[in-house]
Write a structure and sequence with these properties.
Blueprint (H helix, E strand, L loop, with lengths): L1 H7 L5 H11 L3 H5 L4 H14 L2 H12 L6 H18 L6 H11 L4 H18 L7 H11 L7 H13 L5 H7 L3 H11 L4 H17 L1 H4 L3 H12 L6 H17 L1 H6 L3 H13 L7 H4 L9 H15 L2 H12 L25 H13 L5 H7 L1 H12 L4 H17 L8 H17 L5 H18 L7 H14 L3 H13 L2
Subcellular location: Cytoplasm; Nucleus
Keywords: Cytoplasm, Nucleus, Protein transport, Repeat, Transport
Protein name: IPO4/5-like TPR repeats domain-containing protein
């Protein structure tokens, strides 16, 4: 079909005819045809080269007279207008477009105001760079219409337009929209119970502010973080909007850590993230995705990724005293600094397995970013925590402790090797047990071998004293394991010693 269209457009009479039809047709099906990439690609060159000036002018007038209020063809018409505007705006060839947008956005009719803002959003998306000379007036308009109380889609399109234009905003334009951040928050709060998908779309404005023009959001950082935590912690909301809220916090930590630290948000964020990690129906899934490269769609899986981001980008002394003090307090006060004990009551000895398990996930995800700090100050303490977890009666807690041990083995070398004589026998015993319970606890099997492989790989030549014992365990599994999976993992573990 694409090839046929290309051949058709070689006819010099096609583009003028197409523009005439699109400018005058009332059929949603006909207008919808403009969504074809090949059709759209031909319209602007056609207006510039194929059509005469009178025909081009007539098309521009006709397209603005289309039925915008009817939602079905609106997007198609807006796409066409946005493409033409991208060409016309630099040369001021279509002044009627700005008049149309101004008239509709100021209309007394709420439906017409929605039309005007929808069109401005499309033009901002397609021709943001071309709109730069008009930014001051456009931002003032957007700051005004975002206050619309009669039609919620008017502020929706206003925020989406701002999102598209932020990249082009300079110091001179910041003042026009810096004061509307509280209004943006209010609009998003109103959208969340109505349409979480649209609310997520609106929340992208904060990501753009962080990345392109942080001075807009700088005075409101703490307020936006508090809003994000409120959304993230609300278990009545859908996963996507909760994850979206946490992703802003992760982006803030990564890109503007000084602002994050300035507002002393570490404790506040950790106190919200930990219950989210605890609140999971699939307890064995989170540690598998906690350090994944892709953004998880589930809050309990994404929350550890935020803590991982904190570990990677914040000074360890601002994070570890809070993490270890908050989550890891099983009779280890003598092993760790006093400041770590400011949140005394232990989660590790909680009656709830989900709390104990979350402790090990949190310890695991800080290992990479805070490796030196942990090894120099708290290695014995965190290993004591892990040993406690390996003996937990709940298999999901044991699995999480093994995950933590695997992370420590990978990132806390060479110091952790000093504890090989204590840790390897524990891992060997757990590997044997997990092989026998592979069907009941498959995650335990993979976690135990993960910890074993990471430890063995890091030992290098220091593995030699333990090699006979390791081979004895692996050969026993190869001979007696009831299923193939333990044998596959045993072979992989043997390879890790090479």
């Amino acid at each position: 079909a694409t090839q046929q269209l290309k051949e058709t457009f070689k006819d010099p009479n096609i583009v003028p005819g197409l523009c005439q039809v699109l400018g005058s047709s009332k059929s949603p099906e006909v207008l919808g045809s403009s969504q074809s990439p090949e059709v759209r690609k031909q319209i602007v060159p056609g207006l510039c080269q194929t059509l005469g000036s009178s025909q081009s002018y007539e098309f521009r007038i006709q397209i603005l007279c289309q039925d915008f209020v009817s939602k079905t063809p609106r997007n198609s018409i807006a796409e066409v207008i946005a493409m033409v505007a991208k060409h016309d705006i630099p040369n001021n060839q279509w002044p009627q477009l700005f008049t149309f947008i101004q008239t509709y956005t100021k209309s007394q009719n709420p439906a017409e105001r929605e039309v005007g803002m929808s069109l401005l959003n499309s033009v901002s998306s397609a021709a943001g760079e071309q709109l730069k000379p008009h930014l001051a007036s456009l931002l003032q308009l957007l700051a005004e219409v975002i206050q619309d109380k009669e039609n919620r889609m008017v502020p929706f399109y206003a925020i989406r337009s701002i999102t598209e234009l932020i990249f082009y905003i300079g110091d001179d334009e910041v003042r026009y929209i810096q004061g509307i951040v509280p209004t943006v928050l209010h609009v998003i709060k109103e959208f969340i119970p109505v349409d979480e998908g649209q609310a997520c779309s609106l929340m992208e404005v904060f990501d753009e502010m962080l990345e392109c023009e942080v001075s807009i959001i700088a005075p409101h950082i703490k307020t936006v973080v508090e809003f994000s935590l409120e959304v993230a912690s609300n278990t009545e909301l859908g996963d996507n909007v909760r994850v979206k809220a946490m992703s802003f916090i992760a982006s803030l930590i990564k890109m503007k850590k000084k602002a994050f630290l300035k507002h002393k948000l570490v404790d506040t964020v950790l106190s919200v993230l930990f219950p989210i990690i605890c609140d999971s129906e699939d307890l064995d899934e989170e540690e598998e995705e906690a350090l994944g490269d892709n953004e998880s769609e589930r809050p309990a899986q994404y929350a550890p990724q935020v803590i991982d981001m904190m570990a990677l980008h914040l000074p360890p002394d601002k994070l570890i005293p809070n993490v270890v003090g908050y989550y890891c307090t099983v009779d280890i006060q003598s092993m760790i600094d006093v400041d770590m004990m400011k949140m005394v009551e232990p989660h590790m000895s909680s009656e709830k397995a989900s709390h104990r398990r979350a402790t090990y996930i949190c310890l695991a995800v800080v290992a990479e970013g805070c490796a030196d700090y942990i090894t120099n100050r708290h290695l014995q303490a965190v290993l004591h925590c892990v040993v406690t977890g390996l003996n937990d009666p709940d298999h999901t807690v044991r699995n999480a402790a093994l995950f933590a041990l695997g992370q420590f083995s990978e990132h806390l070398q060479p110091d952790i090797s000093k504890f090989a004589s204590e840790l390897l026998p524990l891992i060997f015993n757990y590997v044997n047990k997990a092989a026998q319970e592979a069907e009941k606890n498959p995650k335990g099997l993979t976690r135990s071998y993960y910890a074993l492989e990471m430890f063995c790989e890091s030992l290098e030549k220091e593995i030699l004293p333990y090699l006979p014992q390791l081979m004895e365990h692996m050969l026993r599994i190869l001979r007696s394991a009831p299923t193939a999976r333990p044998k596959e993992l045993a072979i992989s573990a043997i390879g890790a010693t090479g």
